[in-house]
Write a structure and sequence with these properties.
Number of domains: 4
Pfam families: 2-oxoacid_dh (PF00198), Biotin_lipoyl (PF00364), E3_binding (PF02817)
Number of strands: 27
CATH topology of the largest domain: Chloramphenicol Acetyltransferase
Distance between the termini: 77 Å
CATH architecture of the largest domain: 2-Layer Sandwich
Domain Peripheral subunit-binding (PSBD): 211-248
CATH class of the largest domain: Alpha Beta
Structural class: alpha+beta
Radius of gyration: 29 Å
Family: Belongs to the 2-oxoacid dehydrogenase family.
Strand content: 25-35%
Biased composition (Low complexity): 196-205, 246-274
Domain Lipoyl-binding: 2-77, 104-179
Largest sheet: 7 strands, mixed
Shape: elongated
């Protein structure tokens, strides 16, 4: 009986794929779940496993063919019908090894969180042949937001690593295989066994008209590589996504040779050898690269504009001085400035709801809640944890939540859920001494408030020049959805609430 191999579900909005590589040929014996071929879409690489053990008797869609969802790719004759040579009994050492082999358990990419579709394998803490305990950490993945640890699902031996360090994997990818209950091998396998055999296929000379895989093009753009810097392992030298990962993780040339321009969008000017020898080249982390990409996307997508104002902080400082001891004694947290700014912004967002909205295609999505993002600088880069339903919180609740999220951010322990769903963001550059800046939007949000350094300055009050603690405020907004009037009104309402905090109590 022939078993059909069909195109699996490719994901939402993806209707077709290209057959990139066949790892088996007609006549080959295949095991159940063994990878037969790889499909490329404009978003991800999809592996197609064998639905059953047997012999590959027909390949319907050869490499380079464009196929739709559920299209027929190949046919397999079941093991019982594949001929006597396919079901030979194991002998000698092979049988002994098979007897000792435990149940094979797949190690899959854990849940990455909403809107996160891929991750990069940063570090493997175990190698093939190592014994592992249940829940012992096997490897660490990096996403564009956080690092994710991958524990072993069972106790046993790590028998195979499918995604070596530097590999980009999707949210449903298989990372490794653990033999449940098996004993560790006396000696570790050779290092080359770590790499997936299919990806290490001998590369062929690339034909001039061969089109590289869509995901490979995207990966090359992200890694700053050109096609002539990557050796393709696909048919006719076609560059695959894994080829890009290997090229990106390859050892760099010595510092003295870095005088050549780097493969970036704007090539670097030649550097004298004596200067190059004193430079250090470090690959951008995934988090830093994503920060750069998202900020540039915000500039390219939104019609971004910034409006400024200044606020007299005397009222808040007097209030804090009067109640900070009693506040800390009752609530167990210090009264800071951030809770005032969060409350003032929530107050202003009710009057100017478009600053709390976002554009989704041809629609404007108005949010009847405030999930306040609070930008936090960490050693790894900028992250924006979210205080959910901040408009329903009191001052003490806000201070506690911001303190908790800030500590978790600095320790690198924020979860994906804690950094998603923000509707407006506050960025406090004042803690670093910034006097004035224009913050960049955090897409898809339509507004971000920049706080700055508090500085004593002469101002005119009732016709008299007095010295007051002043702070510049900056509101960057998406002019596609927020008009100038709305932006200025929002910033004025924030200023009024901060200069007279009693307004927050009576909601005016």
């Amino acid at each position: 009986m022939a078993i059909e191999v069909r195109v699996p579900t490719l994901g939402e909005s993806v209707s077709e794929a290209t057959v990139a590589t066949w790892f088996k040929k007609v006549g080959d014996t295949v095991a159940a779940d063994e990878m037969l071929c790889e499909l490329e879409t404009d978003k991800v690489t999809v592996e197609v496993p064998a639905p059953a053990a047997g012999k590959l008797i027909e390949i319907v869609a050869p490499e380079g063919t464009t196929v739709g969802v559920a299209a027929l790719l190949a046919q397999i004759a079941e093991a019982g019908n594949a001929g006597p040579e396919e079901v030979k009994p194991k002998k000698g050492a092979e049988a002994e090894a098979g007897a000792k082999e435990g149940k094979m358990t797949d190690v899959m990419v854990p849940t990455l969180g909403e809107s996160v579709t891929e991750a990069t394998v940063a570090t493997w803490f175990k190698k093939v042949g190592d014994a592992v305990a249940q829940d012992e950490m096997l490897c660490e993945l990096e996403t564009d937001k956080v690092s994710v640890e991958v524990p072993s699902p069972v106790a046993g031996v790590l028998t195979e690593i499918l995604a070596p360090e530097g590999t980009t994997v999707d949210a449903k990818a298989k990372l490794a295989v653990v033999s449940e209950g098996a004993a560790a091998a006396p000696s570790a396998p050779k290092s080359e066994d770590v790499s997936p055999a299919p990806a290490a296929a001998t590369p062929t000379a690339k034909t001039k008209d061969v089109e590289d895989a869509p995901s490979a093009k995207k990966a090359m753009a992200e890694a700053g590589l050109s096609s002539d810097q990557v050796t393709g392992s696909g048919r006719d030298g076609r560059i695959m996504k894994e080829d890009v990962a290997r090229a990106a993780s390859a050892p760099k040339a010595p510092a003295a040779s870095t005088s050549a321009p780097t493969p970036a969008a704007a090539p670097r000017a030649p550097v004298p050898a004596e200067d190059a020898a004193r430079e250090e080249r470090v690959k951008m982390t995934r988090l830093r690269a994503t920060i750069a990409r998202r900020l540039k996307e915000a500039q390219n997508t939104a019609a971004m504009l910034t409006t400024y104002n200044e606020v007299d902080m005397s009222g808040i400082m007097e209030l804090r001085n009067a109640y900070k001891d009693a506040f800390e004694k009752k609530h167990g947290v210090k009264m800071g400035f951030m809770s005032f700014f969060v409350k003032a912004c929530c107050h202003a967002l009710k009057e100017v709801p478009e600053v709390n909205a976002e554009i989704d295609g041809g629609d404007v999505v108005y949010k009847h809640y405030v999930h306040m993002g609070v930008a936090v600088g960490t050693p790894s880069g900028l992250v924006v944890p979210v205080v959910r339903d901040a408009d329903q919180m009191g001052f003490a609740q806000i201070e506690k939540k911001i303190g908790e999220l800030g500590l978790r951010a600095r320790d690198g322990k924020l979860s994906m859920a804690e950094m998603q769903g923000g509707s407006f963001t506050i960025s406090n550059g004042g803690v670093y001494g910034s006097l004035m800046s224009s913050p960049i939007l955090n897409p898809p949000q339509s507004g971000i408030l920049g706080m700055h350094k508090i500085q004593d300055r002469p101002v005119v009050v009732n016709g008299q020049i007095v010295i007051r603690p002043m702070m510049y405020l900056a509101l960057s907004y998406d002019h596609r959805i927020v008009d100038g009037k709305g932006a200025v009104t929002f910033l004025v309402r924030v200023k009024e609430a901060l200069e007279d905090p009693r307004r927050l109590l009576v909601d005016i």
